[in-house]
Amino acid sequence: MTIVKDIEARGTHHCETTALGVLLRHEGLDLPEPMLFGLGSGLSFIYWDSKSMAFPFLGGRVKPFDLTRNLAARLGLTLMTEETTSPRKAWENVAAPIDAGQPIGLQLDCYHLDYFLSKVHFGGHVVAMYGYDGHDAYLVDTDQQGGTVRTSRTSLALARAERGPMTARNRSFTITLPAHPLSWQDQIIPAIKDCADAFLAAPIANLGHRGIEKAGKQVPRWLLRAGEPQQDLPQAALLMEKGGTGGSLFRALYRDFLDECTGLIDDGNLRAGHRLYAEAAVLWTDVSTLIAKAGESGDAEYLEQAGVILHDLSRIEKDAMQALRQL
What we know:
The chain is of the alpha+beta class.
């Protein structure tokens, strides 16, 4: 058995920030999960639907691994990434750092992991790996998935090699701090402004505040769009609240990030952004509740109400990001 010592699992919500927290704490940088999410400019929105999809997808964050790239660039971290199509090389890429005493991050499809009770394909899942033996790999996942967990090396290989939406080719990564790290406090305002700029200037109507407005128009039709409404709508609502989002489709995490920032930076625009995202977080939970009720009851009126709230959310989040862009 090979185990990296002094690995700490915490009660975290989101997979990528969970893994980042493990890797960075091992390097001596200990930041709360909302701060990691915010410094990585993680908040976004996408309404994703196509004929090949069984049901639309509402996403509340940037693409998988973009948060990690953003955070590394902003803090001057050394991010070493490996990808391969070779199963042998894929294992060597994770075993070597662990043998050297360094935990490693993995992007994979959680469907194959032994400890996942809900078998849904998601190729953008991220975990930290800190050890292995002849049969199992030792991982850190979100609190919801058990924190420190293990899965068979066979299941891990399948999860890492899976192909499909948002997957990567056996992606693994390590993070190291430079001898003289940048001050993370100095990167708060650039991170907030970059996130706001991207949200407000999204290139297509499915993204950012325009994407939320589009969702407001499409969600009222979801009973007709769904193949199995009683299953599809509650599942969509569950993912919004419990699917590693930290609640409210990541808005609760961003609200908490902005709250932490108001204790460090005295700025009226920052306080306005925090107030608006606190409001938005409550409304996103209302939306998910209405979507679930529509699926359970078959009553489209719940979806009409959700559409009205989404229209308001588009305005609220646009106003919030316009304030934050002025920091």
